[in-house]
Amino acid sequence: MSSNAKQLVKDFYNSDLLNDKEVLTKYFHPDVELIWNSTAGLTIFHYQEIVDTFKEIARTYTELRVEVSHVLQDGDFVTTRYKYYIRTIENPDEELGIAHFISIWEVKDGKLYRGHQVSQPAMDKDDTNGSYHKIKV
Questions:
Q1: How far, in Å, CA of 124 to CA of 29, rounded?
Q2: If pLDDT is split at 50, 70 and 90, which confidence band does 61 have?
Q3: What are the chain's domains?
Q4: Burial 76-106, CB ≥16 within 10 A → b, else e
Q5: How far apart are the first and last CA of the chain?
Q6: Beta-sheet pairing, 28-38 with 111-121
Q7: 56 CB contacts (<8 Å, ≥6 apart)?
Q8: What is the pTM of this model?
Q9: Digit-coded pLDDT (tens) for 71-93
Q10: In whole angstroms, how far apart are CA 17 and each of 6, 42, 43, 123, 124?
């Protein structure tokens, strides 16, 4: 895989995850596996669990925005650092940062195939002022 892997990952994180019904089929390999370490512990998602998660996010929030600060590639592996921001149905005028992520994606057959993700909830004491400037995108 060439720099297409990096572009694929960038395009995925810049897509309209909540409103574009084609996003998941366009970017995720049918045999996708996402291994996610969060404050809830280890969770392993396959294609249908990812679909169900995004359906729940779309039901809960009116907008989801991803701010990417780093995108690094090593062969078929692409690492990203990003933060999720949401708007709620109850308060659509306020955007809230909800979580920080670092993900490593293996790209296979032009799609996201195997992911390793670590997340941490956003907090008031986050030192993010200036740290989400695009470093290596």
A1: 36
A2: very high
A3: 4-121 (3.10.450.50)
A4: ebbbbbbbbbbbeeeeeeeeebebbbebbbb
A5: 18
A6: parallel
A7: none
A8: 0.86
A9: 999 999 999 999 999 999 898 89
A10: 18, 23, 20, 23, 26
